[in-house]
C-alpha cells in the first residue's frame, strides 16, 4: 500500500495513493459535510457540499471524488469553502424539504445558511406523496437529485434499471423508465433505493405511517443484528425496534455479503417474526 505525503489544514499526513480526500479527512476526524455521498455507491459529486480548497487549483474540488496526489495542500475550511457550503445549503433548502435530512440543521447554523432569504418555504415541497404500493412511499419534495437511488437500482447493485432522472432544468426529477407507474415497471421492491436515500424522499411505508401519526420515535429505537432466514445466502439484517415491535429493516453497508442491499423478503418480510396467535 503506497503512501504519499499531503498537507491537510496545516497537518502533514501520509495518505494512501488513490484514496479520496474525503476518506483521508474522515480518518483524521475532520468533519466534511456530505449529502449525496454513500458508503456503497460510487460518488457522483452531485450535491457539491463537500467542496474543499486545493492549493493551485482554479476551482474548489469535491472531496468525495478527488483523489490524493503527492504533496497536495488542502484546506477543508476557508472563507471560500465556507461560502460555497453556505450557498449549497441555501439553494437546496429553498427548493427541497430537508426536514428529515441528518445534520442539515446543524450545518446551516455552522455556515450561517438562511434558505428563507430566497423563499419562505421550499418551492417544490407541495408535490404529492406517491403511495402506490404497500411497501414504500416516494416523497420527491425531499429529493436532492443525488443519483444514489438511480445507481443502487442500476449497474452498481440491483441491475433492475427501474429508476432514472427525467426532465431538464427545474423540471428535472426522479422517474421510472419511460415514466410508467411503479407496478408497470421492472421494480422488484427490494428497497435498496430506500437504504441509500439520504433525505427521506424514499421511505418504507411503516416509517411513513408512524411519522404521519406522530408515533415514530427514533431516539427510543434499538437495533439488533441478525441473519435473514428466508434463504441460505446469509444476508445480514439490522432490525430497528420500537416498543418491542420491528418498525424497519436495513442492512449494514460494510457487510461483505450484502453491502447494505437486500431482497424484498429480507427488507419487508419481517411481520412473521412478531405476529402472535390471537387470544
Give the count of structural domains: 3
Nearest-integer average pLDDT: 89
Q: Number of helical runs?
A: 7
The tally of strands reads 12
Major beta-sheet overview: 5 strands, mixed
Which radius of gyration do the C-alpha atoms yield?
20 Å
- The residue fraction in helices comes out at 10-25%
Oligomer classification: single chain
Low-confidence stretches: none
Termini separation comes to 62 Å
**Class per helix and strand makeup:** alpha+beta
| Residue fraction in strands | 15-25%
**Can you list the strand order of the major beta sheet?**
2-1-5-3-4
Write the element-wise H/E pattern from the N-terminal end onward. EEHEEEHHEHEEHEHEEEH
Describe the structure.
- With 279 residues, this protein is α+β, with helices and mostly antiparallel strands.
- It folds into three domains: 3-77, Ubiquitin-like (UB roll); 82-117, no CATH class; 136-273, N-terminal domain of TfIIb.
- Helices cover 20% and strands 19% of the residues.
- The protein has helices at residues 21-27, 79-93, 104-111, 148-153, 192-196, 205-213, 264-268; strands spanning 3-8, 11-16, 51-54, 61-62, 73-75, 136-138, 163-166, 173-176, 202-204, 222-227, 236-242, 245-250.
- Helix 2 crosses helix 3 (104-111).
- It is globular.
